[in-house]
């Protein structure tokens, strides 16, 4: 049976990106293969990986085994390089590991190294059809402003830590003004108990007969922020997709908005 399609958001170039994708951070290549196969069977049509996760080949094997037409799956990867030349080489290696001719979204993973050089390699990948969309991750503050001054093609996505404890309200506005979609990484704070047992979120979950994780994901999606939760548990995979049959009220959105600490829960960026 064909699973119901997940709503999507359009990148500035018209490419449709599902609002809920599947994350693969800290999962070995072998486990990733198994988990991504399961996620695709359950109905995920967006997969997020990265060169530094060391599991692109697992994603590639799962995609091949699924026999889904390539155009049905939105595939994201991220570079982990220092400059122009190694980025060029790494993109070809990623495509080979992922067993595909193109990714739907190619991101600079972090604002380190020769950013103009790395980004120029992404712009070329876009022109050559090796990526249908390009963007950045963890670009917050001046680094984003600097890139926008030198980029020929504006980043289409900025993937950053975003959840109820770090809401990135100003960054989202900043991105929106430049046609950049802000995407959430670690939407569940990597499964943190403090978030999933938060009193406010728990109360809202009870009202809607949903789980705290579903309320958090719904809250992000309702702000127009795509999410890529990770789970190795099939029930959680299903639950994380089942967030389009309820809506939070204005008051509930505001209650969660008051949980912002403005602080990273990881201390990376
Ligand atoms: N660009 C970047 O720098 C960056 C950084 C970090 C992450 N990411 C991306 O973002 C993705 C998501 O972030 P993340 O993996 O750090 O963590 P996350 O998605 O915030 O949380 C994952 C944790 O939440 C638990 N979980 C998932 N669904 C649940 C549910 N419905 N109910 C209860 N618990 C649930 C999972 O445990 P179970 O397996 O037990 O369900 C897992 O421990 C990554 O996998 C990666 O693709 C990007």
Q: From the coordinates shown, what is the CATH architecture of the domain at 8-188?
A: Alpha-Beta Barrel
Number of helices, counting only DSSP H or I runs of 4 residues or more: 11
Intertermini distance: 41 Å
Biggest beta-sheet profile: 7 strands, parallel
List the helices and strands and how they pair.
Blueprint: E1 8-10, E2 16-18, E3 22-23, H1 29-42, E4 46-48, H2 56-66, E5 74-79, H3 84-98, E6 105-108, H4 115-127, E7 134-137, H5 142-150, E8 157-161, H6 169-177, E9 181-185, H7 193-196, H8 199-208, H9 212-222, H10 234-241, H11 250-257
Parallel strand pairs: 3-4, 4-5, 5-6, 6-7, 7-8, 8-9
Antiparallel strand pairs: 1-2
Bound molecules: NADP nicotinamide-adenine-dinucleotide phosphate.
Walk me through what this model shows.
With 269 residues, this protein is an alpha/beta fold. It has a domain at 8-188: TIM Barrel (Alpha-Beta Barrel). It has helices at residues 29-42, 56-66, 84-98, 115-127, 142-150, 169-177, 193-196, 199-208, 212-222, 234-241, 250-257, and strands at residues 8-10, 16-18, 22-23, 46-48, 74-79, 105-108, 134-137, 157-161, 181-185. The mean pLDDT is 97. It binds NADP nicotinamide-adenine-dinucleotide phosphate. NADP nicotinamide-adenine-dinucleotide phosphate binds at residues 23-25, 48, 109, 137-138, 159, 185-191, 196, 211, 213, 228-233, 236, 239-240.
């Amino acid at each position: 049976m064909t699973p119901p399609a997940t709503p999507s958001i359009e990148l500035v170039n018209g490419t449709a990106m599902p609002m809920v994708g599947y994350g693969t951070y800290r999962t070995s290549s072998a486990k990733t293969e198994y988990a991504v196969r399961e996620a695709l069977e359950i109905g995920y049509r967006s997969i997020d990986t990265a060169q530094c996760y060391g599991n692109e080949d697992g994603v590639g094997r799962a995609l091949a085994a699924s026999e889904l037409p390539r155009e049905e799956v939105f595939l994201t990867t991220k570079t982990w390089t220092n400059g122009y030349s190694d980025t060029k080489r790494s993109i070809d290696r990623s495509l080979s590991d992922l067993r595909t001719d193109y990714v739907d979204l190619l991101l600079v993973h972090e604002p380190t190294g020769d950013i103009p050089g790395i980004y120029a390699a992404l712009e070329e990948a876009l022109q050559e059809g090796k990526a249908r969309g390009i963007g950045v991750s963890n670009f917050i503050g001046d680094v984003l402003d600097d890139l926008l001054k030198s980029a020929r093609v504006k980043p289409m996505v900025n993937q950053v830590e975003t959840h109820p404890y770090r809401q990135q309200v100003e960054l989202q506005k900043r991105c929106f003004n430049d046609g950049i979609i802000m995407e959430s990484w670690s939407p569940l704070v990597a499964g943190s108990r403090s978030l999933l047992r938060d009193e406010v979120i728990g109360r809202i979950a009870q009202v809607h007969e949903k789980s705290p994780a579903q309320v958090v994901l719904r809250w992000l999606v309702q702000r127009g922020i795509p999410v890529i939760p990770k789970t190795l548990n099939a029930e959680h995979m299903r639950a994380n997709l089942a967030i389009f049959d309820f809506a939070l009220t204005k008051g509930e959105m505001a209650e969660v908005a008051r949980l912002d600490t403005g602080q990273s829960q990881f201390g990376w960026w």
